[in-house]
Amino acid sequence: MANHNTDYSKIEPSHFFGSPEEKTKFNWFAFELASEIDRAVPNQLKRYLSTKGYTKKMFNKSCITLAVLLQEVVLKKLRNEIPDMEISYTAVERAFPRLNDATINRLLDCTGKAWDNLLSICVSCPSACVSNKDAYCAMFDDKTYD
Q: pLDDT tens digit string along 106-138?
């Protein structure tokens, strides 16, 4: 993934690859998921998170971390290691450390909504980012995402 000097003032495709070989559809899926998590968290909760030290940059980095963690769950589902895709409390807690249970649960709900929103789009998307997970994703080279 991207280096530690990366600007996290907004979630960008460049956060999901560190080399041209990592410009895969599956990493694009993670970018879309992180962006969807950001959209699913209401501003009121974001304001509360800011009082807990989650600046916009920290919040974005946590959304990116959570999306990458959820890629592992998707892979387990694809390998038939788990019966259903599930977003765990533990994954949200790892991405957003040092928060109380109630806040983690609220973020878990937001992540579930983000997941549902993304999948509702994926159903009709011709890219098939999960099915074609290892394929090169030209969208990483599209300058409109810069």
A: 999 999 999 999 988 888 888 888 889 999 999
- 139 found inside a domain: yes
CB atoms closer than 10 angstroms to residue 122: 16
At 87, phi and psi to the nearest 5?
A: -95, 120
* Amino acid identity for residue 143 in this structure: K
Q: Which domain holds residue 111?
A: 13-145
Q: Is residue 4 part of a domain?
A: no
Query: Is residue 38, in this structure, part of any structural domain at all?
Result: yes
CA-to-CA distance for 125 and 65, rounded, in angstroms? 24
Q: Which residues contact 57 (CB under 8 A, 6 or more apart)?
A: 7, 8, 9
Instruction: Retrieve residue 17's tokens.
Output: 């690859």
Give how many domains the chain has, as a whole number. Answer: 1
